Structures are given as C-alpha cells and as structure tokens.
Amino acid sequence: MQQLDLFADLSEPEPSKPEKTITLPKPTAGQYANAVARPPQPKPQQPALIPEAHPSPARPRLEFAIRPSDGPTFGEAVADAWHGSHGGNRMEIPVGIVATLALWPQKGHPHTLAEFLRGLDAEQLIACVREVAAYWWMRRPDLIDTASVLFRWAEEEKLTKNELAAIRATFHAALKANALDHTGHEDPAWNSDIDLMSWAVTALRHKSARSSLGEYHTPPEVCDMMAAQTLGTDPEQIREGYSVYDPCAGTGGMLRSSVNHVRSMGIDPARMTWFAQEIDPLAAAGCAVNMIVWGMGPNAMVACGDTLAEGDMWRRAVEHRKFMVERRDDAAAAMAIARALHQVEQLVSGGNAAA
Hints:
Layout: H1 71-84, H2 92-103, H3 110-118, H4 122-137, H5 141-146, H6 161-176, H7 179-183, H8 196-204, H9 207-212, H10 220-231, E1 243-246, H11 253-264, E2 273-278, H12 281-293, E3 300-304, H13 307-310, H14 314-354
Parallel strand pairs: 1-2, 2-3
Helix pairs in contact: 1-6, 1-8, 2-4, 2-6, 2-8, 2-12, 4-6, 10-11
C-alpha cells in the first residue's frame, strides 16, 4: 500500500478537503470479466450492403450501491461479525474499523476500494487503520486526539488470534453492509445521510450498559424535526459564524440533522461553529469522526466530559485544539528535517560511490 502523504499543506483554518494521496489498485486486464474464459469467436461475415455494426461502448462500472443497507442493518452486521468471531469485549476495535472506513481519504470509488480491502490480511488492515489515523491527525489533530480511543489498539504488538480474525471479519461485514457507500462521496453533503458511528455503538453496547450511561439512540426523524424547529427556515437568521452547541451530543445525531438542515437552506456548514460535549469517551470519539466525515469545517470541536458537573467546556476545547495544532506543527517540522537529512545522506553516499 502506498504511504500516506503526511507533508501536505497543513494551513489553518481551511476546511479539510478530500485528498488523493492513497492510490487505489487499477483493474488489471480481465479483472471484471466472467470467471470462465471463452476462446475468441470468428467474426461473422456481413452482406456488403449492410453497414458493419459498431459495438456499443462499455457501461461504466457502478461504484455506489443503489439501495445501501440502513442504519440498524449496518449496526447488526458489524456486531454479528465481531461477536461471531469471538472478538471479545473491546468495543473500540470494531467501532474503530467503522471509523477507518468512514475516514478513508480517497472518495468516489467505494466498490473498487472495497475489493482492494477484501484482499488484505488482518495485519495489512491494521496498517490501514494506523495510516488513516495519521493522515487525519496531520489535518485535524484535535479531533483525532479526541477519537484516539478508536485507533490506539492498532499500535498494539500483541493482538490475540481471535481479535485478528474478528478484525478481518468486521472489515468485511462493514464493507458488505455498504459503509463506503454511505461515507465515500466526494461531496460531504452525501455522507451525512446516516450516522454509522451511532448505529455501530448502539449495536455493540449492551442495553444495560447504555442505560447506566443514560445513553439512548434518538431516532433520526426526531432529530430532523428538532433541528428544523430550533434553527427555523429563514437563511437570513443564520449568518457566517453562527454557532450550534449540543451539551449531550452522543455521536452527533442532532448535529447531523442541523448540518443537513442548514445545507437545505443553501448554507455551508463549514462556515459555522459547531461544538459538542459528551460524557462517554467512545461516543465523543464517534462524534469527532463524524465532524470530519460530514464536512463540518475547521470550527467544529468536541469536548469529552460531564456537562452536569463541569458545565460549559468551550474554553477547554479551544485550549486543547491550540495545544494539538502546536504539537502537530512541531511533529511536521521534525519530520521535514528528518526527510531533508535523509536526502542529504543519499546524495553524499551516491557521490562517494561515484568517486
């Protein structure tokens, strides 16, 4: 797999744009032909007075599913694959797999990418998790730091055999359930029709655990109605810099409805300010991932904490963002120096060899 470009333009506060740094495999000759090869047939002779028929152009390959799986079906597919392979109780692994597919940088080719990913073994898929996390950490370090619980497991050296088998099975199940069809569009507006992170967390977490956390999945239709009533229908009332705040955001279902609502009024949500607070680290991580997937712009932030005990955490989120951006910039500078030194060493060693 080609290495991700971690030295791309990191200027702030431009909204994240789909990058083209991961090269998808190009179809080889006959890759999509029938499995049984047929010998070439002789071309039939046609009467001289009848013009030769020209073959019709090949139909373009259909990349997006016509009827992708709905949210509950997707969540059940992920949970069944993980538990059916005896993956254990580490929810962050299957949810991290869903996050990796949702955050895959190159958009527009879900079926081609799915075929490529299905051909990888567990270790190669884990490498994909690490590279996708690194790619977005260089662009939105604050959000990826909040979502780090979904990616840290990919750095572990000793995953069990059951976990490795479950990782591959969960990747395959998420692909079959159209994860990339839901999140693989170049236009982020098309990626916000469904909250895959919420459905994955809901299906994987036991009902008693959700009750103890006070966590309940709000139906998307209810979120849509509440967003429309809260924001109204007058575009003049929602100006650039308008802010939306959810103190108990979960994975961002209410924010998703708000994003879709302002887009329906011709307003770019990336020009607004979005802030979410959530007590559950796993849900807060899912919300951070969704802010990238849904194209909510550079002024979208998440704070993980207890809203009832701590109140407004906006200042903490701003300080966290500032700290992570500085840390990212320091890391980028160090890597640039290391790369330059490596190039100098190659030039010197090449000159010595020629001498």
